[in-house]
Amino acid sequence: MTDWDGRLEEASTAWSSWCRAVESAGIDALSKTITSDEIDLAEGLRHLARMARLTLFSATENRSTSNPYFWPALDPHLKMGGDNPQGLYLSAPVNGTDTFRISGTCGSARWVSCILGRSPEGVQAGLTPFGNAIFRPDIVAGPDDTFEIFVAPERPQGAVNWVESDQWTVSVLLRQFFGTPDDVHPMERLEIENVSSGSQTTVPLRTDDIAGQLARAAATFSILVPLMQSEMIEKASAKNYFVTDIGDPTSISGGVPGGNAVTARWALEPDEALVVEVTPPTPCGYWDVQVGNGWYESFDYRNVFSGFTCDNAHVNDDGSVAIVVAERDPGTANWLETAHHREGHMAIRWQLSEGHLPIPHCTVVRVTEVAERWALPPVSPEQRALERRKLVQSFDARFGQRRVSQGEPGEPRP
Question: Any alpha helices (H) in 158-255, and if so which ranges?
């Protein structure tokens, strides 16, 4: 066998193994769709395609820690694990030995977290998927609204913002959660550089390298797809009822760094509403609520009311919040749509709440009863149409006009 024949066999085997892994895990997941509704099956098929792309790209692209750059970790077309409708998720490759410098402008995000991700080997050794982190309240910026964050095993001299890495560190995740749809200004001039090695010339890709990356992508797909799905399946006997996410698959996989969530599987008919009542904990640096489908994906948040935050929710005088989940518009504030689904997921994130995790109370009523029984501000059709336009504007500000690692400032903030 020639060298070419050997490489061809290696490449062919790697591709066949990837395809078989995706086929096996995918068919098994489709057979466990949580309802018999076509929309859930169709979205399941799309979810598998998204997860194949997500795991494949994560394993094969933007791998050099000498030449790192930020790119979308999750976005409107790559969704998993209850991704935040108000969020902008960016990631970059790093390692546990070098010093990395992240810089940019702060933007308008209500909540920012810079979190280090660990390798599968670290998780297998018993560590959590995410390591150390720094959050918006602790990120010190200059008078010109610019910041620097250093990622390194030891604090660099003069570093104000520092996240300690360890031997298992392989990535950095930068999350920006925006408080209101009409104030969305992502970080600008966002860059990451390897201070230790500097930019280096790229090396040619080798067959054994990409074969190993495909194998890792296959393993990740085979783990994540059933892991995320299992949380919805396990909640089949407790619909319209909240529990803490501690110990649930999304939490075990690193969900909600800096806090925890309370989660539920809702089940409603088109003329029903789920009214969720809760008093946010004190302290709580930030909180938000969202609904999504049975594959633990957010809805189409450019066009669907699928989440809000502590900044744009209506809060009662006593500090409590009433959230309305329904297919039909109840004509009130705090409405989240079910988007033609009879079942799906719901999550409320409590950030920096010092372990306080209030469990909401749930009531299922007719949609027509909501305005009568709960003292929520009325929302007219004209106001609702304006809110929908703001959703589009928020989406476009995050994804349509965003400049990442290009060194170009965006439009000036008002």
Answer: 207-234, 249-252
Alpha-helical regions (H) of 32-108? 38-60
Tell me the average pLDDT across 200-223. 95
Contact (Cβ atoms closer than 8 angstroms) between residue 259 and residue 339: no
Cα gap 207→11, rounded to integer Å: 7
Q: Rounded to an integer, what distance in angstroms lies between the CA atom of residue 172 and that of residue 293?
A: 27
The residues facing 112 across adjacent strands are 176
What is the C-alpha separation between 79 and 69, in angstroms, rounded? 21
Is the separation of the CB atoms in 178 and 109 below 8 Å? yes
pLDDT tens digits, 299-343: 999 999 999 999 999 999 999 999 999 999 999 999 999 999 999
For the chain, the C-alpha Rg in angstroms (whole number) is: 22
DSSP state letter for 412: P
Closest by CA position to 363, among listed 259, 272, 284: 272
> In 10 A of CB 142, how many CB atoms?
11
How far CA 148 is from CA of 38, 131, 158, 173, in Å, comes to 48, 19, 11, 15
Q: 3-state DSSP: the chain helix, strand, coil percent, rounded to 5?
A: 30, 25, 45
Confidence (pLDDT) at 407: 36
Find, among 134, 83, 94, 84, the residue nearest to 117 by Cα: 94
> Reduced to 3 states, what is the DSSP secondary structure of residue 192?
strand
Residue 382's SS3 state is helix
pTM (two decimals): 0.94
Which structure tokens are listed for 295? 């594959």
Across the beta sheet with 100-105, what order do the strands follow?
162-164, 146-152, 100-105, 191-194
Q: β-strands 243-244, 335-337: how paired?
A: unpaired
Backbone φ and ψ of 38, nearest 5°: -60, -35
